[in-house]
Amino acid sequence: MNALLIGNSDGIGLAMTRRLLAGGWEVTGISRSPSPVNGRGYGHHVSDVASDEYDTLLQDITTNSAADLCIYLAGTGELLDPRDMSGEARIFDVNLTGMVRTCAAVIPRMVSRGSGHFIGISSLADELLSAEAPSYHASKAGFSSYLESLSMALAGTGVSVTNIRFGFVDSKMAKG
């Protein structure tokens, strides 16, 4: 079984990578940082999901290896500074648009095979309004809505879509 994990060099993504490898999966990871994992059954690519190169990398990976499972774990967030909102669009690029770009590369191949599972890691923040981090909350609302709607659209294709909505997780991003 082949898995593609996006955003897996630390936190939940790293733990998931290790778990899948221990279960005998072949895993390909993509993240902005090098991975501490190496060895048999694992390949890693350094790429930012918000970059133009990400689409090319996804195309290369999905052409050479069919993913039975794809997990999108990439995410970012920061507190709003109303005097400098230059980082707001990037939060949408990583949290929402990167996930949609990943779906567009992976899911058609799964549908063609009649099997596969796409999992997105979202947040309970998708239901909340926030003056402190509006872009994080709004991007997660779009993320969850898209995946839940996509799940309905793919009914009967053999492809499953799961949206996992975590509460607070003590991770590097949360500490930042």
Question: What topology emerges from the helices and strands here?
Answer:
Layout: E1 2-6, H1 11-22, E2 26-31, E3 42-46, H2 52-64, E4 69-72, H3 88-113, E5 116-123, H4 134-153, E6 159-166, H5 172-175
Helix pairs in contact: 2-3, 3-4
Shape: globular
| DSSP strand count | 6
Strand content: 15-25%
- Main sheet strand line-up: 3-2-1-4-5-6
Helical element count? 5
Mean pLDDT: 93
- C-alpha end-to-end distance: 35 Å
> H/E element string?
EHEEHEHEHEH
Structure class: alpha/beta
Low-pLDDT residue intervals, each spanning 5 or more residues: 171-176
Main sheet makeup: 6 strands, parallel
* Percent helix: 40-55%
Give me the Rg, rounded: 16 Å
What are the key terms here?
176 residues; alpha/beta; 43% helix
Describe the structure.
Helix 2 runs parallel beside helix 3 (88-113) and helix 3 runs parallel beside helix 4 (134-153). A 6-stranded parallel sheet has the order 3-2-1-4-5-6, sandwiched between helices. It has helices at 11-22, 52-64, 88-113, 134-153, 172-175; strands spanning 2-6, 26-31, 42-46, 69-72, 116-123, 159-166. By secondary structure, the chain is α/β, with parallel strands linked by helices. 43% of the residues lie in helices and 20% in strands. It starts with a strand and ends with a helix. The longest helix is centred in the middle third of the chain and has 26 residues, at 88-113. Residues 171-176 have low confidence and may be disordered. The chain is built from 5 helices and 6 strands.
